[in-house]
Structure formats: C-alpha cells, structure tokens
Amino acid sequence: MSTGRGIGQDHLSLPEKLKLISWPLLLLLTLTACIGFASLYSAAGGHMAPWAGKQAARFCFGMAGLIIVALIDIRFWMKMSYPMYVLGILLLIFVDIRGHIGMGAQRWISLGFLELQPSEVVKVTTVMALARCFHAATGEDVKNPFFLLFPLALVMIPAGLVAVQPDLGTAMTIMLVAGGIFFLAGVPYWMFGTVIALALAALPVLWHFMHGYQKKRILVFMHPELDPLGAGYHIMQSKIALGSGGIFGKGFLHGSQSHLDFLPEKQTDFIFTLFAEEWGLIGGLTLMSLFMLTTAYGYFISLNCQNQYARLLGLGVIVNFFVYIFINIGMVMGLLPVVGVPLPLVSYGGTAMLSVLFGFGLLMSAHVHRDVKFTRRGLDMA
Amino acid sequence: MNRDMERHKEFSRRAMMLGSGKILLFGTLALRLAYLEIAEHRKYETLSNENSVGIRLLPAQRGVIIDRFGAPIAVNKPDFRAVLVPEQTDDVEETIDDFARLIPLSEEEKEDIMAAVRRHRRFAPVLVKENLSWKDMAKVEVNLPHLAGVSVEEGEMRSYPLGRSAAHVIGYVGRVNKAEMTNDPAMSLPGFRIGKTGIEKEYDEILRGTVGEVQGEVNSVGREIRELKRTEGIPGKRLTLTLDSDLQMQCHQFITKHRSAAVVAMDVHNGEVYALASHPSFDPNVFSAGIPADLWEGLLSDPADPLSNKAAAGQYPPGSTFKIVTALAGLESGKINAATHIHCPGYYKLGNSIFHCWKRGGHGSVDVVQAIRESCDVFFYETAQRVGIDAIAQMAHRMGLGQRLNFDLPDVARGLIPTKAWKRKRYNQRWEKGETLIAAIGQGYVLATPLQLATMAARVANGGLAVMPTLLREIGDTEETPLPPASIGLDPNHLALVRKGMEQVVNNPHGTAYNVRITTPPYSMAGKTGTAQVRRTTAKMRAEGIDVFHLPWKFRDHALFVGYGPVHKPAYAAAAIVEHGIEGALSAAPVVRDVLLAAMKRDPRLIRTIDEAESAHEARRHKKDGGEDGL
Q: Is A348 a member of any domain?
C-alpha cells in the first residue's frame, strides 16, 4: 500500500508527521481559546488573576500535549483504549467512594497543579473504548443486539458512576455522545427508535430518582416565573445580559450584568453570556462560527481516515465537543434547562481544557496517521 | 477490503446526517441569540439598567446653633456606635448575645436589632448600640476578634452644652415617627433624627440640610461595586440665635429655686430675646441619645410639667400686671387723665355686687401713677367701668397680648383677651359688667404668657413701638433684619405716666415691690407686680383672714412681675411667672430684678469703669462664674 510519498505510509518520520499536522485546526482552537482568555480577563474585572492567566498557561501546556498526542501512532492509542478506559473508571470509583465515606462530595482529585475531574477524563476514554469496540465489529455484529450489550456496558458504567456523584448533566452528555458513536458505527435505525421510545417511557421513573434541586431546575426551566429569585433567576439574568448586549455589545470590560455579579458562574458555565454581553450578536456569532468551523474540520478529518477506529474516534471527539457547546449555549440562552456543563476551550477549568485538547490530539493523530491501515485487533496488517 | 469500503461509505452517510443535524442545531442557537440581542434588546437593556444602578444616601450634617456671641448651643458631637454586618457572622443572634455579655442589651434592644437585620440587606450595617462610652468602646474594641461582623463606627450625636438651662427654647432631636414622615429621602437614613420641639423643630428643615447621594453600580445582592455619580449633601445651615447663653444659664438658675416658674428677657428696641427659661426642665442630651421609657413616663406624669415651655406656651391670668393695659385704655380714651383722682375705700360697689380692693382699708384718693404704684384695684375698677371691656381688649392687643406674636417656636400660646363678642360666641351669653372689672385687674377670662407680658413691658419701655419678640439673628451668614417696629400710636405722655407708675412700684417706698429695688447705680428698674388668684376668694375666707403660707401649694396664688431697666434709658424688658408663688412682689419680682441686673451688667453701653468692663468680660468668658454674678 505504501507509496513512499509520506502519505499512506505505515511508518512516518517525525518531520513527516509534523508536516502532516493540520495547523489551521490548531489555529482555530487557539482563536477560540483566546476568546476564552479575553472573557476570563474581563470576568475578573480586567485582571489576569485569578482565571485568565492560569487558563492561558493550561492552554499552552495542553497544546504541547496535543501535538505530542498527535505525533504518537494511532495504533498505540488503539491499544491503549481499554486500559485508559479502565483507569478512568477507577478514578471515578475513587472519587465516588471518597465522597461516600464522608470526605464531602468532591468531584476532583487534587494533583497540586490541577484538580483532576475524573468525569472529564471518562468523557474521552469512553469515546476511545467505544471506537476500539466498534472498530473490531463487523457489519453483522452491529446489527446484533447481543453484541451491542458490551459497548452499551462500556457507556453505562461511567454514565452511572457520574450520575451518582451526582452529576446528571455530564452523565447525560456521555450517553448522548455514545449514542452518536453507536449511530456512526452503523447500529440499525430501529434500535434507536426503540431506545428513544423506551427512554421517553422511563422519564417518569427517572424523575422519581432525581434530586430535589434537579427537579426544581427542570420545573423552573419550564416556568422561570416560578422562582424569579432562585433557580429561575440565573436564566433570567443570563437572558438580560445577552439581550442587553444588542448587536454590537456593551464593549470589552463593560458588561454590566457580568461585572456586577448578576451573572452566576460567569467564569465557567455562563462565560458565553459574558462574552456575548460585551461583544454583542457579532461576537456571539463569531464564536459560534469558530465552533462550527472546528466541527466541520473534524468532519473533514474523520471522513478522510482510512480506518474505522480513527473515524469513530475523530467524530466521537467532535460529537462530544458539539454536545457540550450546544447544551451550554442552549442553557445560557434559556433553550435548555440549567445543567452544569462548561463551554469547551472557553470556560475556566483545567481538566475540561486538557481533556478537550487531549481529544483534539487524538483527532490530530487520526489525521496524521490517516492512511495507516490495521486489523480489527489493532495490529499492523504487515 | 470491500467490507471496509462498505463500512466507510455507511460511516460517511451517517456522519453527513449527524452533521446536518448539527448545522440545524447551530442554526437554532444562532437564531435564538439574534432574537435575544435584536428583537428583545430594548426590553433587556431596560432590565439591565434597572438591575445595576443603586442609590446610597449620604447624610448631611445638621446645622449647629450658636448664641449671639457665637457660643455653642446645639452641636454635633462625635459618637461611637457599634454596628453589625450580618453577612460577616455565621450566627447573628449568637454574636448579639456575645456582645450583650460585654455591654448589657435589653430584650427590646435585641429585638430591635434582629428586626433591623431582617429589614436590611445582609451587607448593610445594622446599629447594635450607639452612644458608647470610652470604656464601653474599648471593651468592644478589645473583644472584636470574638465578635464576628461587629465594628465600631463614628457617627454624630446632637449635643446641647447648655443642658437643662435652654432645653425649652432649643428643644431636642429624636427618631422620626410615622406622623413626621415626609418624602425627604433623609428620613430613610438609619439613625436619622428630626427636631422634636423648640428651635430644633421650628427650623428643622433649615438645620437638616439636604442629603447627598451616590449613584453606584450595584451587584445582584445590592452591594456597591463602583461609584457612578456622587452628589454631596448640603449641610444644614448654622443658626445664630439672639440668646445670650450666659444670661440664659443665669435665668435658669434664678428660677430653679421655685417649684415651677418661667422668665423671659428681651431687648426693648428690637425684640431680641436674650433669655427664655422655664422650670422644671429636662436634659435634652438624654433625649437626643434616646430617652429611657421610665424617664419619659416620669416627665409626662410630673404635675409641674417639665416638658412644657411655660415662658411661651404657659397661659396665666396676668393679674395686676394687666393694669398697665387698663391704665393706657383709660388714658387713651380720655376717660381718665393725669389729674383724675379716684377714691378707694377698699371696695367698689357695682349694683348689688361688691368688688374688693386687695388693701382692706383702701388707698384713699389715688391718681393713675399712685394706682399703678400701689396696685389699687378700685382705681382700675372705676377706669374699666368708664371705658368698657372692648376698649381694654383693643389696648391689650396693641400691647401684644392675645396673639401668637409670630414667635420662632413651634408651641406658642395665644393667651386670651375677652370681648363682648368673644363671650357671645364662646358661651352664647351676654357680657356682664362685673366681668369688665375682673378683667381690668387681669383676672377672670384674661390669660397671657410671660412672653406676651415681656413684650408688653418692652412696648411701654420703648415709647410705644410694636416690637415683636424674636429668637433668630442669622440663618447661615444671612442676617435676619426685621422691619423697624411701627408705632402703636399711643400718646407719649400717657406712656410716660404709666412708666412713672412702674418706676415708683419699685423705687418709691409706697411701691408694691420697693423691697426688690436695684440699689447699685447706674442700674435701675421699673416694673409692675401681679398676683393671680387660682381660686375664688370667698367671703368666709376673707372674714377669717388667709394665711397664704399655710395653703397647700396648688391653692396658692401665682406670682407675676413685668419690668424693664434701666429706668430712664430702657434697654431690657423682662417678665416672670412663679407658679403658686403667693405674691408678685414676693417671688416673681426678685427673679425679674436679678435677670435685668444681670443683663444690664453684661451690657457694654451701661458699663462705666474699666474695672466693671473687665469683670463683665471675665463673666462672659467664664460662663459658670457668670451664673453667680447676679445672685
């Protein structure tokens, strides 16, 4: 298969790999992250501390990581998929148990320079494991409900562990992303229909098991006037911030809503609101366009990959990216209930930033190694 | 390979479906954003502005009050108060209990604090205890580490250096009650105080000033983040009063030896009131700090009524001091003149009724000067009989009686001068001739305030100019220049006769107040005694002879005196009432003499020698010493 022109080779030299890295995609990521830095700078009232500086440092660190991940052979990542998945699950169990035995509902493990959130980690490792699983499956396998039990378990274990944290929002995004991968892997449409129907039927049961505050959020989402000073307040204030921004915005560092603390969690979940208040419709659409372009780029890369693992992994990362963006922006604009979901690359948060960049590293690795072919078990075809 | 190609194709197809879904969702988000930021922009912009601007009031300093020489009468004294910011403590009640262990707080105080905590935002300081002494403040300061959220602040408290001496004139400030609420934003300032009585009330709006405000951006809990616009408050204006605080204190001392009394001293030419005192009194400093309930109850139930200003609001039968009016009414009407002699056998017969003179044997034949000097009732019965009640009432009004005099205090009594029309209107009865006689000697329906009587004395002394008593000299730096008093149109000769009578009251051995004359030239005074019956003297009492000194206090007659001095170049007029003081000459006349003497001694126009000038200067500098000067 090898043509000896750098592309389509099984083994690439480092300079060849560097040349194959898609620099425009990195530029898109950097631009998006820069919007994040500016917003965090503004959120702190025009200061690098406490958020913007740290976030920029993490981004640089993450970018370096991304390139290293991209240079590592995709086949290595395929081999590592299950071990990393298991590691992620173990970390999740660790924080869950620790929370259970009374050290408080901490969702992170402190590593000194970073507070590692296992739920952010499993978002990527689950995608890897699913890609690995479906890579090995035949066209018949994916139509066989019994075969599907295994990937289903791969999803439900982390989703369940995250849900008991309790972080229902993240659990649901994990399932949504997994659904996307199942879909891309060729699982028959009727199965999706069945699952959706079952899920709708299960809603009352789910409602029963929800925490009070989660129920309230959904109720208030449907009727914000129920609680103008409580949960509905956040949505209301966020809408006021967005709406008062207008077409051109209030200007950088002049978002009155955000600076006056009317906006909750302005450095994390409501960062889009802060940005759109200051930069208006123009700014909001620009950021959304950057996200669209990045998504499109991911599609372009994934569709050009010559093996199923790389394709599923690449689009899995992109679906994950998109789901977060959609839920976050939909939430701050009052289209979706308030669920604690960050805006990728923009919201303040170390683990989220690193896991997103790690995901893009995998996507980039798929791109660099797009012509590498390997067997369903992940070994060289030789 | 074929199978993989197949799979790739299927993957691509499904990826495209997913991608289209994403474009659709992105489109939804974009439309939603556009809707919010374009269609609903105006609505949310308004909401945003309302959200973020808050107004905080800046208290305006209350104007100070000074006397005619610039001595402080009402000032703002720094005051230490403990405040609590509820959000800085985990348990407000516990903190307050801890505080109460250091400085006792009553249950009501604790409840008030908790109520204030509930009323205000969590970051707004709430008053815990004001007017802390140095010792208490030190106690709190030392224990601050154990009192989360508590801090010591400096505020301002109204202080009255003259204390009880001028309590009735100056008044006091206190917390605003519901009835006093206006739309002045100052009312909503925590700890804001309003003038409750006296000058503090009368000129409250001038003293209060205008509150400033800070328009600031506030965050969602109302905490100020940034100042947008600051309008400084305008401090209240300084008031310069006509009072002489040294003389005021002396006046207060002169009357404190009586159970209940009042005195007014004023300038005969321009009506400036130099002193106005009422006794018993109260300490206005206690009021401005917030008066304890038991003390307040005590003041309210005291029969001597310490809260009322007897000098301006107390109405008394003027007694024989009113004979000045009757004499002038007779002279001006022409029904009597300087040569008119009336025989006094000790009683006066009107129809079947007998009206007694105070002197049982009678005065014999007296003219108007002698009648005033000896306060002969019969002379004035006859005069009144000749001129009638309405002419007397008219003269009373010209002398300043029966009217509010436009005085600078909120509570000024009108007094009462009866006329025929008044009685018809009031009681629907005909005026009886005998009532004219009773009125002529200042009894019966006639009522006057010490302030009115002092005004009357001033108008006699100044040659018939309608001076009005006033307390205000300057507002801020603007001098209050009243119009020069108009003439009340009396014949100077008639006034001279009355003055001659008043001079002899004090300076003639036959005068009713000869015992209280001033014997130290160049000082001198003239005056008129008055004794007002508080109950009717019955024939039985008259027959048995009354030992006034053994009557219960409340049945004793009121003692009054009006006077002016010096005799030949009058400068000051004064009037005093000693409630149940038995007899004008006995208790009221000495008060007026002391007051006039003190006033004259302080007057540079009357000081002749360097020694006297120096001692007067000393007296002014040492207020305390000044109090004993006139005794």
A: yes
Per the listing, tokens 């401005």 go with: B288
Q: B41, A243: Cβ pair inside 8 Å?
A: yes
What one-character DSSP code corresponds to residue B630?
T
Handedness of CA A372, A375, A379, A382 (dihedral sign): negative
Structural domain of A192: 19-368
* Integer angstrom CA distances of residue B411 from A17, B67, B429, B592: 99, 21, 31, 23
- Chain B residue with minimal CA distance to A240? B44
Measured in Å, how far apart are chain B's first and last C-alpha atoms? 129
Crossing angle of helices B377-387/B389-398, nearest 10°?
A: 100
The separation between CA A360 and the C-alpha centre of its own chain, rounded to angstroms, equals 10
What six digits make up the tokens of B443? 């009894």
d(CA B557, CA B579): 7
Of B326, B269, B606, the residue nearest B463 (C-alpha): B269
> Crossing angle of helices A350-368/A74-98, nearest 10°?
160
With contact defined as beta carbons under 8 Å apart, do A115 and A348 qualify?
A: no
Contact assignment for A244 to B4 by CB distance below 8 Å: no
| CB-closest option in B14, B220, B225 to A184 | B14
Q: Rounded to an integer, what distance in angstroms lies between the CA atom of residue B541 and that of residue B195?
A: 48
Determine which one of B260, B278, B320, B587 is catalytic.
Answer: B320
Q: Which phi and psi (to 5°) does residue B263 adopt? A: -150, 145
Listing DSSP states for B219-272 in one string gives: -TT--EEEEEEEEPPBPPPPEEES--HHHHHHHHHHHHTSSSEEEEEEETTT-B
Note if B524 is an active site residue.
Answer: no
Number of domains in chain A: 1
Whether A292 sits inside 8 A of B8 (CB atoms) is no
Q: Which of A240, A292, A299 sits opposite B44 (nearest CB)?
A: A240
> Where are the domains positioned within chain B?
56-241
Up-side HSE of residue B423: CA atoms within 13 Å toward CB? 18
**Close Cβ partners of A11 (under 8 Å, ≥ 6 residues apart):** none
The answer to the question of residue A148 being in a domain is: yes
Q: Comparing C-alpha atoms, which of B170, B188, B169 is closest to residue B180?
A: B188
Residues in chain A closer than 8 A to B28 (CB atoms)? 330, 335
Residue A4 lies in a domain: no
Answer whether A333 sits within 8 Å of B32, measured CB to CB. Answer: yes
What's the CA gap between B103 and B111, in Å, rounded? 16
Give domain B56-241's CATH superfamily. Answer: Penicillin-binding protein 2a (Domain 2) (3.90.1310.10)
Q: Rounded to an integer, what distance in angstroms lies between the CA atom of residue B30 and that of residue B32? A: 5
In the prediction, which pLDDT does B476 show?
87
Distance from CA of B120 to the nearest CA of A (A): 17
Q: Is the pTM of this model over 0.90?
A: no
For the residues of B344-411, what is the DSSP string, one character each?
E-SEEEETTEEEE-SSTT--EEE-HHHHHHHT-HHHHHHHHHHH-HHHHHHHHHHTTTTS-TT-SSS-
Angstrom CA distances, B620 to B69, B243, B293, B370, B612, stand at 9, 13, 38, 39, 12
Strand blocks (E) in chain A? 109-110, 115-116
What is the complex's ipTM, to 2 decimals? 0.89
Distance CA B594, CA B590 (A): 6
Looking at the DSSP bridge assignments, the partners of residue B364 are B344
**Does position A4 have pLDDT exceeding 50, yes or no?**
no
> Splitting chain B (631 residues) into consecutive groups of 10 residues, what average pLDDT does each group show?
75 91 93 90 79 71 93 89 80 88 86 78 74 86 84 84 93 84 74 89 92 72 67 90 95 93 95 94 86 84 90 94 96 94 93 90 93 94 95 95 92 94 93 93 94 96 94 88 86 95 94 91 91 75 66 85 93 95 89 94 73 68 48 38
Kind and range of the H or E run holding B173: strand B173-175
Q: Does any domain span residue A10?
A: no
